[in-house]
Amino acid sequence: MRCPFCSNEETQVKDSRPTEDGTAIRRRRYCPDCSGRFTTFERVQLRELMVVKKSGRRVPFDRDKLMRSIQVALRKRPVDPERVERMVSGIVRRLESLGESEIKSETVGKLVMEALKMLDDVAYVRFASVYKNFREAKDFEELLGELSGEDDNGETGDN
Asked: Is 128 in contact with 113 (CB distance < 8 Å)?
């Protein structure tokens, strides 16, 4: 592993342990050249996933990009980072378990929306507004109606 401080390629692992959710190995590393210390994470990757965009373009799946987009939706929300990490790991596992090497971007978006809906309503609405490309206030009203359990006639499902 290359040192991020001095680019030395001979770093040493000082400590390894599984993450709390057991989906990765956390390694504390030390660089003998510059005495820098840093942490790396090692994850199992079952298959190389490609995301097929709406335009038809194919790009490699990027877990970090998924995490960043979720963190944008969760900005300033009181959600434990461990829950977010578990959610992202769960989404990645579901994508890998589909058995396909190419996954439509819509599939990724739907999985994120499902997970955010269970985690935080505000983040769900934020993500949905970008994912569904909301253009006017009534788009928000319809989504909020779904969240509150109203049907198409504005009545709640409790009747």
From this structure: yes
Distance (Å, rounded) from C-alpha 114 to C-alpha 139?
18
Q: What is the mean pLDDT of residues 7-15?
A: 93
- Give the pair of three-digit tokens for residue 79: 């959600």
- Alpha-carbon distance of 95 to 47, in angstroms, equals 10
Distance CA 29, CA 46 (A): 25
Packing angle of the helix pair 63-73, 81-97 (nearest 10 deg): 130
Mean pLDDT, rounded, for 132-159: 60
pTM: 0.62
The 3-class secondary structure across the chain, one letter per residue, is: CCCCCCCCCCCEEEEEEECCCCCEEEEEEECCCCCCEEEEEEECCCCCCEEECCCCCEEECCHHHHHHHHHHHCCCCCCCHHHHHHHHHHHHHHHHHCCCCEEEHHHHHHHHHHHHHHHCHHHHHHHHHHHCCCCCHHHHHHHHHHHHCECCCCCECCC
Does residue 47 surpass a pLDDT of 70? no
By DSSP bridging, strand 24-30 and strand 12-18 are: antiparallel
